[in-house]
Amino acid sequence: MDLTVVSYAVYLVVSIALTIWVARTLSRNGRLFIADVLHGDERLADAVNHLLVVGFYLVNLGFVALYLRGGDDIASTAALFEELSAKLGVVLLVLGVLHLGNVWVLSKIRRRGIRDQETHPPVTPDAHLTAGPFAAPAKG
To answer: Does the residue 140 lie in any domain?
Structure first.
């Protein structure tokens, strides 16, 4: 069998397996993070998580398919391993960049939500606090 075809087959199997493993890991472990970002709305967190996974699959599998075609024909076993390591290395980098991009966007959303919660006063401006450990002493 032609070594170029072997490299294509190995590249596709490993790339697709890595994509599935990373997507499942991100989905399973990212769900809690998304629920926190969305203030505990479990249904919305599940929907957003599912949409992120679908987008992850589309982008990464599309990249894997476009990156399948290599340069020259592979003539030796050493060249086969070199080609596979280069291609799989790029796929792993793309997976990592996509993951970091998702985490960065979600953390920005989470920080914005925390900041919005902190800017609201604990009572309305015309309300009065009852006497407590932090109340001003009464003047008399």
So the answer is: no
* Residue 18 tokens, joined: 């890595």
Q: Which two tokens stand for residue 65?
A: 């398919």
Q: How many domains, the chain?
A: 1
* Percent of the chain predicted with pLDDT > 70: 79
- Evaluate whether residue 121 is within a structural domain: no
Q: According to the model, what pLDDT value does residue 76 have?
A: 87
pTM: 0.68
Burial (Cβ within 10 Å: 0-12, 13-18, ≥19) of residue 49: buried
Question: Is 34 part of a structural domain of the chain?
Answer: yes
- Between CA 46 and CA 27 the distance in angstroms is 9
Alpha helices in 38-76 (DSSP H): 42-66
Domain range enclosing 33: 1-116
Q: Which of 66, 65, 67, 61 is nearest to 23 (CA)?
A: 61
User: Does residue 129 belong to any structural domain of this protein?
Assistant: no
- HSE-up (13 A, CA, CB side) for residue 63: 18
What pLDDT shows up at residue 128? 63
Q: Is 99 exposed, middle or buried (0-12, 13-18, 19+ CB in 10 A)?
A: middle
